[in-house]
Amino acid sequence: MAVSGTTLVLAAAPARQEHPYRAGQPARAARPARVPGPYRRLFALPGTRGFTTGNLIARLPMGMFGISAVMMIAGQRGSYALAGAVVAAGLAATALVAPWTARLVDRHGQARVAVPATVIAVLGSLSLVVCVRTGAPAWTLFASYAATATTPNIGGMSRARWTHLLRDDPASRHTAMSFEQAADELAYMLGPVAAAFLCTAAFPEAGTLAGAVLLLTGMLVFTAHRATEPPPAPAVPGPSPLRSLGGLLPLFLVLGAMFGSMEITSIAHLGAHGLGGLSGPVLALQAAGSCAAGLLYGTLRPRTLPVCLGVLALAMTLPWAAAATGSLLPLAAALLLAGMATAPVMVTAMSRIHAVTPPGRLNEGMTLAVTALFAGIAAGSATAGSAIDHWGTTAPYALPAGAAALALLLGGAGLLRAPSRTRQVR
Fold it and tell me: Which pLDDT does position 420 carry in this prediction?
């Protein structure tokens, strides 16, 4: 500012150069602003980090309870047959109770239903520990473990929240579904390892007790974030999700049979070659491949379900061929590639569940799909066990390959086609 005669002169200060350069050197071009990645944009939404933290904590016990119960009952009662029967009865109870729990969640809200249902499940786990520890009759073990069937489908509730938050953003919703699939794989990769470590390093009941604490803690953290919770739908007209899902439930049943037969066959094959101690790391490698592929798939353009099923059918032939070599490294690599092919299928299939499930019944529809998946796992495990007794440990690798081919046939036959808009309106 200066005064010249009777005139006041105001002059702007010269712009400050933050990055001066030497004479004779060209000026550096300004760096363009970095565009945040899809996952960074996803978790920038208010409340998403909070409910995801609870989701991950409550999800880990899903991979812990089964093996913890087997190790606890077998260690205290000396009977793997009893332990297996108790877990099988619990899975059967879950298949009956879980869809009803999910329907209540859709009608009355996640927080109002999920917390009491979780408390009942935790009390069932604690009752199982007490009954095993005190030498109670065997029927009390069945009753206690059956009470854990009220455990809410935390993965379904989390996906319902993403669907509610991203209802106008299909690309971000695809990323969210890919993240959820990766979280599923992570839980089933780390859960059994954590359970086995606790039951052997501490005491036989440690895995069940830790799982109960994690489940209740995670569910309380998850439901505390009410702002992201989808609104309840007390009276939803229209058909049941059981009818709307159509050919998707057989698909999940077949995929479950593929998972179950692959796991049992791999454990038996490694044990027959004196590598039983490596069963856990090898199966964890398969889950890690699926987890990594799920995260990567979330950054890519989604593919159609028949394309994903075609890649899966090809990938599932690799373990069969690798097992014939009798070497560990080819089998481990084949299982890694097979695991990577499963994530896109599960993400895309879950997206189809979203597309055909009636509004307000999303959690119930996803729980039905998960129930079909678990039923397929049980059937695949039993079939593989019988095949191993008759054919050895190499030929049963044809079972997961055949299941993947059958899934591709279901997709190619048009059984998975979403209902038309006219039918949805009606």
Answer: 41
